[in-house]
């Protein structure tokens, strides 16, 4: 399936009491998407199931935040993050994401579960400049891997400079 990756500059919104829900396997391939997710993303269930969750990645979203997210959930930790996603038609939408590992009956990690809600506008106003800075670092590097490493280091430094010990604590503080 060929996906149009152009951007529309239109921001989609959803209701404060809506919850976008998805589940993935350990490699990030989508195994479940609720109706709210289908509606906001513009994809059908058939298009999403089996697709990598990165199908939603917006180019304005720094990859280092996803590095942080994947590093944390792979270790069995929950993660909170602000994410800008791209809908199928190029529109974008911001979410406050909560991602947790899923386990089978034996305690083996088998995938991930994500709930996404409408973020507070003040929180987005706080993270947007940070994300723009991180994205600038990523885009100025010689290659993608080096860019992610450099922007991740900048993210860690910024978090410390702001007096936080983790991205999660920063996110939770600006979410209040």
Automatic annotation (TrEMBL):
What region holds the PAS domain?
Answer: 25-50
Know the name of this protein? Putative sensor (PAS) domain for methyl-accepting chemotaxis sensory transducer
**What InterPro entries does UniProt report for this protein, alphabetically?**
PAS (IPR000014), PAS-like_dom_sf (IPR035965), PAS_fold_3 (IPR013655)
Q: Which organism is it from?
A: Paramagnetospirillum magnetotacticum MS-1
What is the superkingdom listed in this entry's lineage?
Answer: Bacteria
- The stretch of residues making up the signal peptide is none
């Amino acid at each position: 399936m060929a996906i149009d990756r152009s951007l529309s500059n239109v921001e989609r919104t959803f209701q404060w009491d809506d919850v976008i829900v998805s589940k993935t396997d350990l490699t990030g391939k989508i195994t479940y998407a609720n109706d709210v997710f289908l509606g906001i993303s513009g994809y059908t269930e058939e298009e999403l199931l089996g697709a990598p969750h990165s199908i939603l990645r917006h180019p304005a979203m720094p990859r280092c935040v996803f590095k942080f997210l994947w590093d944390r959930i792979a270790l069995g930790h929950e993660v909170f993050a602000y994410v800008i996603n791209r809908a199928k038609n190029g529109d974008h939408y911001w979410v406050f994401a909560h991602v947790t590992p899923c386990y089978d009956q034996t305690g083996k990690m088998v995938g991930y579960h994500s709930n996404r809600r409408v973020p507070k506008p003040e929180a987005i106003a706080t993270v947007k400049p940070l994300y723009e800075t991180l994205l600038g670092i990523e885009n100025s590097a010689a290659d993608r891997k080096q860019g992610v490493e450099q922007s991740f280091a900048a993210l860690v430094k910024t978090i410390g400079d702001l007096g936080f010990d983790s991205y999660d604590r920063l996110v939770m503080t600006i979410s209040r």
